[in-house]
């Protein structure tokens, strides 16, 4: 796995430290940062789907079909 060096503000470092050391939600800062990046990528995919949908007009799919297709797309990322 590639290693990176990043600089954080004091508030951001304290936030990461809280979730790793105090709340024990994650085993390391790296694990938490990777989760945040995964969430950001997922959000980008959702936003792009919304943009594409808005620009494409109407569809014949039911909301259940659209949801199923979207979930399938997310799994393949």
Q: What class do helices, strands and sheet pairing give?
A: mainly alpha
Helix content: over 70%
Shape: elongated
How far apart, in Å, are the first and last alpha carbons?
18 Å
Put the structure in a nutshell.
The chain is an all-alpha fold. Helices cover 70% and strands 0% of the residues.
Overview of the molecule:
With 77 residues, the protein is an all-alpha fold. The protein has one domain (10-75). It contains three helices and no strands. The protein has helices spanning 10-22, 29-56, 63-75. The longest helix is centred in the middle third of the chain and has 28 residues, at 29-56. The protein is elongated. The model has no long low-confidence stretch (mean pLDDT 91).
């Amino acid at each position: 796995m590639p290693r990176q060096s990043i600089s954080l503000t004091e508030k951001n470092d304290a936030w990461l430290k809280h979730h790793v050391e105090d709340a024990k939600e994650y085993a390391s800062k790296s694990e938490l940062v990777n989760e945040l990046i995964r969430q950001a990528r997922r959000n980008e995919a959702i936003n792009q789907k919304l943009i594409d949908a808005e620009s494409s007009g109407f569809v014949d799919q039911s909301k259940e079909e659209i949801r199923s297709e979207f979930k399938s797309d997310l799994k393949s990322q």
